[in-house]
Each structure stands twice: as C-alpha cells, then as structure tokens.
Design brief:
The chain is an all-alpha fold. It has helices at residues 2-10, 17-36, 47-53.
Length: 56
Amino acid sequence: MTTIIGLARANDQPSDIDQIVAEIGIRYEIMRTKLARRPAGSLQITPEDVAMIMDQ
C-alpha cells in the first residue's frame, strides 16, 4: 500500500488507481526479469538489487 501512496504523491499529474497499479506491475516484472537472469545458485545480493527490491 505504501508503494501506491508513494507513486501517487510522486506524480505531478493526478493518477487513477489503474495507472498506479499498472506502473507497479511493470516495475515488478522488470525486477523479476533481472533477478531471473542471475546465474543458477547465485545467492549474492548487490546494493543495486536491494535498492530495486525496496523500490528506491
């Protein structure tokens, strides 16, 4: 829920809930794709990974 509120506050233009949820879905898919491309068995998490997961 904080992600939705954060996105709504970050935009200068009014956004509807469908647009915000779509943006969250796009960010999630990007994150999932990046993490899936890691070598098999890789357990190391980089600072960039943490920032991406925390949506910063």
